[in-house]
Amino acid sequence: MLFNATKSVVMIFGRQPTVVPVFDLGDGGALSVVKEHTYLGFRLSSKGSGMLRPHYDAKAATAQTMRRVIGGVGQMAGTLPVGMLVMLYMALIDPHLVHGCEVVIDEVKAAYEKLEKVHKVFIRKAIGLTRYSLLAVLCTETGLEPLAYRRVLLAVGYLLYALRTKCLYVRCAVQEAVDLDRRGYPSWASSLRTAVRALEGGGDIDFPDAGELLSEGRVIRLEADILRRMDQYLHAKVEGTDRLSLLHGRKEDDGKGGEVVVVRKLRHYLRVYNPGHRKALARVLLSDHRLATRVRRYTGGEEEQKCRFCRGEEESVAHVWLECGGRQELVERREEYVRQVLGVCSELERERLFALDATPFQQVKYLAGLRCAVTVTAAYAYDVERMVKAIERGGGEGESEEGDEVEE
């Protein structure tokens, strides 16, 4: 192997010597001693909290730039559809968020938090949610994978590629990583195990023993286990909180006349053409609305959660949408909405809707799932949100959208 002095540098890790020695390749050409260097697209550093921290920071900055570029397009052309934003995310942002994840295994969460922040901010803005929204819905409503799971799945996919390739050097590298892990030394294989077990909800994933990592069938099973656990984790997050009660038990058409639970999918209501209506409905369904049962959930008592229109019942989605009579404009808009819904529903759908008259919450839940009425439901959600904002402006009760992220 030949070395090129002009392309070679020296990095000293750990304690720095008082007197830095001179390094050369024997031909009189001294090598530079550096603290940061880019090698094969990875920014390495011998200082700070980690050798690869500059790589994470650089990729987060590039992804953030692409996020702003897409935002600039939206400002010039108008709000883009969610489906298009998801495609742009996968084409322009995701490559930076997952760059090198097959090589740089995520063992320390703090190292890739900046990547996750770009991921969350973009999807929240695409859907129309605030920083108070729950995290699981960012994936269940768009079909995307949580970033931590996606990076690990790509690493497992790379292991499958290495096991299938005919390249001798790649096979030898995998064998060496497994041998080091078997003997108790840090290696790529041990880092992968740590990353899998660190996944939220992934602690019970059955990771292969060191010897089994060389079995293609066993790695395929590991990949399937991670995918299954990811969907189980997201489904449990949605079903386990009453904030998302409008989504509980939700099923999708399987194309064969039946229904099936689909954990991750671009939902039908996110295809509503009008962006204002679409975002208003998304905020209602995903519990990021401005009604008292959400904004005063943790800070307000029973009195403060009373309806600001009628000062009677609790200010919930079901009450404001279907019951409250405290404001004439709201009552008239509700009557118009009911006429519109009944005009687009089939006879069977109308019968089901009337059968739920005694349970307003179930009625709202049914209305939210009616594909034929999603456009008029989104418009109604927008008008109700506008009335709530008018009360806030008049009473000085507005809520800032800035705040800490919340997860239940």
Q: Low-confidence segments, ≥5 residues, pLDDT <50?
A: 396-408
Q: What global shape is seen?
A: elongated
Count, helices: 15
Helix content: 40-55%
Distance between the termini: 55 Å
Order of helices and strands: EEEEHHHHHHHHEEHHHHHHH
How is the main sheet built? 2 strands, parallel
Total domain count: 4
Which class do the helix and strand fractions yield?
mainly alpha
The percentage of residues in β strands lies in under 5%
Work out the radius of gyration.
27 Å
**Major beta sheet, strand line-up:** 1-2
Instruction: Tell me how many strands there are.
Output: 6
Mean pLDDT: 89
Question: Care to describe what's here?
Answer:
The chain is mainly alpha-helical and 408 residues long. The chain folds into 4 domains: 5-45, no CATH class; 53-133, no CATH class; 150-245, no CATH class; 275-395, no CATH class. The protein contains 15 helices and 6 strands. It has helices at 53-77, 82-97, 113-127, 137-140, 147-164, 168-182, 188-198, 216-239, 275-285, 292-295, 317-322, 328-344, 347-355, 360-369, 374-395, and strands spanning 9-10, 32-33, 36-39, 42-45, 252-253, 259-260. The strands form 3 sheets. It has a two-stranded parallel ribbon with strand order 1-2. A two-stranded antiparallel sheet has the order 3-4. A two-stranded antiparallel ribbon has the order 5-6. A hairpin with a 2-residue loop joins strand 3 (36-39) and strand 4 (42-45). Helix 2 runs antiparallel to helix 3. It is elongated and about 90 Å long.
Helices and strands in order:
Blueprint: E1 9-10, E2 32-33, E3 36-39, E4 42-45, H1 53-77, H2 82-97, H3 113-127, H4 137-140, H5 147-164, H6 168-182, H7 188-198, H8 216-239, E5 252-253, E6 259-260, H9 275-285, H10 292-295, H11 317-322, H12 328-344, H13 347-355, H14 360-369, H15 374-395
Parallel strand pairs: 1-2
Antiparallel strand pairs: 3-4, 5-6
